């Protein structure tokens, strides 16, 4: 799978927005000392901020890349191929 780096963050933000919208606009229950609608509003705001951060991360991209080195050696019985992969940051 070759997804952009911020996809998981964006999906998490969408889930927070959906949960917050349900709590803010669809729940009519009340609790003593606890405001369900206020918690829904907080989740909505946090979800929107999370989506924006995910978009920012996706647009800036990743500095991580993989370096692959392949070496082919001849031996008396044929050829031997060795592959070395390293993840580099920076």
Question: Brief overview, please?
Answer:
The chain is built from two helices and two strands.
Secondary-structure map:
Layout: H1 7-26, H2 36-60, E1 65-75, E2 78-88
Antiparallel strand pairs: 1-2
Helix pairs in contact: 1-2
- Multimeric state of these chains? single chain
Radius of gyration using CA atoms only: 24 Å
Tally the helices: what do you get? 2
Report the structural category.
alpha+beta
For the largest sheet, list the strands in their spatial order: 1-2
Shape call: rod-shaped
Proportion in helices = 40-55%
Report the strand count.
Answer: 2
Average pLDDT rating:
84
The major pleated sheet works out as: 2 strands, antiparallel
Low-confidence parts = none
Distance between the termini: 22 Å
Q: Strand-and-helix sequence, N→C?
A: HHEE
Strand content: 15-25%
Q: What does this molecule look like?
A:
With 90 residues, this protein is of the alpha+beta class. The protein has a domain at 7-64. It is 50% helix and 24% strand. It contains 2 helices and 2 strands. It has helices spanning 7-26, 36-60, and strands spanning 65-75, 78-88. A two-stranded antiparallel sheet has the order 1-2. A hairpin with a 2-residue loop joins β1 (65-75) and β2 (78-88). The mean pLDDT is 84. Keywords: Membrane, Transmembrane, Transmembrane helix. The chain crosses the membrane at residues 7-27, 39-59.
